[in-house]
Write a structure and sequence with these properties.
Helices cover 42% and strands 14% of the residues. It is α/β, with parallel strands linked by helices. The chain has a single domain, classed as Rossmann fold, CATH 3.40.50. The relative contact order is 0.17. The structure holds flavin mononucleotide. Pfam families: Flavoprotein (PF02441). This is Flavoprotein domain-containing protein. Residues 9-131 form the Flavoprotein domain.
C-alpha cells in the first residue's frame, strides 16, 4: 500500500474522460489519497458528464477548480507529488512561463518555483501543438526545473491534429513516473 498523497491536475484534453477509471481508481486501490484539481475548461467538461461527482465520491475529497477565499482553509491535504494528466499545450506553456491564473496553475507554479513536491506532466499534444515556435523552449524550461515529463516518441508519438481520436493514453508510463517521483520526494 502506497500511503502517499497525489495532487492530480486535469486539463481539458483528450483522455480526461478516462482519468477516473484508468488512473484514479487503480491508485486509490493501491492506497493512494488523491486530491483532484481541474482547470476551468476541464471543470465544464467533467461537470457535463457528471464525472466531478463521481470523482468526489471515490476520492472522498472535493474536486477543486476555483481558488479559495482568503479566509477559507484548503479542502485538500498536503501532497507528496503532483501529476498533470492530461496536460494541454496551454497548461504546459503557462507552467513554463509561471502564469498562475487559475487554481490548478497556482498550485503547480508554487511547486515548480519551490522545487517541491515533484511534478509529473503528461502533455497530451499533437504535432501542431509541438510545432508552435515556443514549444521546445517550454519543454526545456520545465525539464531544467526538474519536472518529470512523460513525453517523447517512445511514449507518445506526435500525430497530426484530429487524426487520433481514440489514441491510447500511456497509463502505465504515467503511473510509473508518478510512483518514481513520489518515492524520491
Ligand atoms: C474536443 C476538444 C479536444 C481537445 N483536445 C486537446 C488535446 O488533446 N490537447 C490539447 O493540448 N488541447 C486540446 N484541446 C484544446 C484545449 O481544450 C483548449 O486549449 C483549452 O483552452 C485548454 O484549457 P486548459 O489548459 O485550461 O484546460 C481540445 C479542445 C476540444 C474542444
Amino acid at each position: 500500500m502506497s500511503g502517499h498523497t497525489l495532487g492530480l491536475v486535469c486539463a481539458a484534453a483528450g483522455g480526461i474522460e478516462q482519468v477516473r477509471e484508468r488512473l484514479i481508481e487503480p491508485m486509490l486501490d493501491d492506497g493512494w489519497t488523491i486530491a483532484v484539481t481541474l482547470t476551468p475548461t476541464a471543470t465544464t467538461w467533467l461537470e457535463a458528464t457528471d464525472e466531478v461527482g463521481k470523482i468526489e465520491a471515490v476520492t472522498g475529497l472535493r474536486v477543486r477548480s476555483a481558488p479559495r477565499l482568503p479566509n477559507e482553509i484548503s479542502p485538500h491535504p498536503a501532497v507528496d507529488c503532483y501529476a498533470v494528466v492530461p496536460a494541454t499545450a496551454n497548461i504546459v506553456a503557462k507552467l513554463a512561463l509561471g502564469i498562475a491564473d487559475n487554481q490548478a496553475l497556482t498550485q503547480l507554479c508554487e511547486a515548480i518555483g519551490g522545487r517541491r513536491p515533484p511534478i509529473v506532466v503528461f502533455p497530451r499534444v499533437n504535432a501542431a501543438h509541438a510545432g508552435q515556435p515556443a514549444w521546445d523552449g517550454h519543454i526545456a524550461a520545465l525539464t531544467r526545473a526538474g519536472v518529470h515529463l512523460v513525453y517523447g516518441e517512445d511514449v507518445w508519438p506526435l500525430h497530426t491534429p484530429r487524426s487520433a481520436p481514440n489514441k491510447q493514453i500511456p497509463w502505465y508510463a504515467i503511473r510509473s513516473a508518478i510512483e518514481s517521483a513520489a518515492a524520491e520526494a
